[in-house]
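Quick one, T. Sequence first:
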Amino acid sequence: MSDHPPCPQCGGTGWKPVERDGARRVVRCECWRTNVADRLMAEARIPKRYQHCALDNFLVYPNEPLMKAVGKARAFAEAFPVVEKGLFFIGPPGIGKSHLATSVLRQAIETRGARGLFYDVRELLRLIRSTFSDGAALGEMEILRPVMEADLLVLDDLGAEKSSEWVGETLNLVVNTRYNENRPTIFTSNFEVKEDDTDIDSLQARVGFRMYSRLHEMCEFLEFDGADYRYCPPNTGPNELLSAWKNQRRPKLPTRSGGPMRAQLKGKTDLKWSGGKAGN
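Structure tokens:
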């Protein structure tokens, strides 16, 4: 039994009486919509660190690619679910990619009643692996089905996972299913698109060439750089962020690809995931 008193407008039924054109009828009460949104938010798996994120509290400063990304995120959130493509935020750590992705997800849940999900890619893979052990509480498809069927899915930090045949097949299953069903997805990644698609630290090599092709058709790619918000003190303003962005020196991302991938790309051999052969 709830400890809260019943809503004064509907008495806890979720329906409130109204009069329109001299006729008395009932409509859904605002408390019902709020309760539904609260439940959907609780089920969305948004990490506590990002639960405050909103487009209105994203600090923008004179940075054209970043301002474009924010504008695209806002337009997507306002148009959802009538959207043609998802979004893919690409750039170095700390520039606000996860903030933007989570903000769009939250707005879709709160204003549209969307069934949304947030997953760090590595955490998703860890949960799926946990189903392989004896006595696991959930089966593999019990983890994957909500991911593939969510109205809006955020997959954070794509490419940071350690590559393997199983990882490639699992992520391709998720991406291909959502691609075939036209379900919008928002991705983030620290790995940039490079002209040399055989570079082992390019996004193309990290995710596989077949998935990369799918992603390009599924999403609008938004690449941007900026100040690392994590190094900025509280109450930092736009001018300070602009100065920090211009003056910062970013270390190169560490190479995360192992020797087998390097050899496969160099030799243009089969990548062992369903992405086929490099260059095809």
